[in-house]
Amino acid sequence: MWRVMVIDDEVRQCKGLKNILLREFQGDMEVWDFTMAAEALAFLHSNEVDIIITDICMPEMDGLQFMEEAAKENPGIKVILLTGYAEFEYARKALTLGALDYLLKPLNPDRMRAVLEKAFQEISEERLLASQKEEMRKQLDITLPIYMEQQLNQWVYGRLSAADRKEIEKIIPCGKPGNVVITRLKGFQEWSNTVEKEEMEETKYRIKWWVKELLQLNYHSLSFFSHVLPDTMVTVVTLKRAGSDAAALLERGNPADSFPVFSGGGV
């Protein structure tokens, strides 16, 4: 269902265009009509609209001004300008400022349909692209932590190439004073054998998040689980400011009192 707004200060033309749109696109379009730009903007503030068809010449606000204000509410909205021959050059200028297209009065039904089909096509393509980007982001959210955990495990055991080590150093500032904190989770190995993989990964994520939250005031930190010792978490911490001890913070902050902590070594 396409959501279309019509703005024209001439009531008869405004209602007429609305009726034409509803007739031409039966069942595929919802249309709101306004004769005052201010009322249309107020509606935009609280409602989603795909396409605006607005007269270019109105007393309180011209079409270009309305287009600019509408873009503040919805930057991706498609604007089609209604214009007479007298404002033709003005309408062409509007295309360079972001309008999708224009329609000359009196309206040609074939031209109107072609312009609207163009708008539908652009919106559909943009929505598809946005959906693809969101799916890629979700996949990255899944795969990047797995990749980083593999790299960090290799780093701890001194198996990273110089190039890969530089990538790690972009994530955590290794040139600053810091420590590696080793946390062993009591009973984690036994517990992990009784739950689904998804629940185990969610628990590991929450533990890493808790550690990051606990340390973030004084430290940059990055936590990951050992591939060799699955019940062991490694936290690399570098100092933001003096006056705190990461291992002590972890020991004091552990709500379950089940993380015996051992720290040592430089980063």
Summarize the model shown.
This protein is α/β, with parallel strands linked by helices and 267 residues long.
Describe the structure.
The chain is elongated. The model is unreliable at 255-267 (pLDDT under 50). It starts with a strand and ends with a strand. The protein is 50% helix and 20% strand. It has two domains: 2-129, Response regulator (Rossmann fold, 3-Layer(aba) Sandwich); 172-264, Alpha-Beta Plaits (2-Layer Sandwich). A five-stranded parallel sheet has the order 2-1-3-4-5, sandwiched between helices. It has a four-stranded antiparallel sheet with strand order 7-8-6-9, sandwiched between helices. The protein has nine helices and nine strands. It has helices at residues 11-24, 37-46, 63-73, 88-96, 109-156, 162-171, 188-192, 197-215, 246-253; strands at residues 2-7, 29-34, 51-55, 78-83, 101-104, 178-184, 219-225, 232-239, 261-264. With 267 residues, it is α/β, with parallel strands linked by helices.
Shape: elongated
Q: Per CATH, what is the topology of the largest domain?
A: Rossmann fold
CATH homologous superfamily grouping of the largest domain? Response regulator
The strand order across the widest sheet is: 2-1-3-4-5
Structural class: alpha/beta
* Count of structural domains: 2
Cα end-to-end separation: 57 Å
How many helices?
9
**Mean pLDDT metric:** 81
Rg value:
30 Å
CATH architecture of the largest domain: 3-Layer(aba) Sandwich
Briefly, what CATH class of the largest domain?
A: Alpha Beta
Oligomer: single chain
- Order of secondary-structure elements: EHEHEHEHEHHEHHEEHE
The biggest sheet, with number of strands, parallel, antiparallel or mixed sense and barrel status, is: 5 strands, parallel
| Poorly predicted spans | 255-267
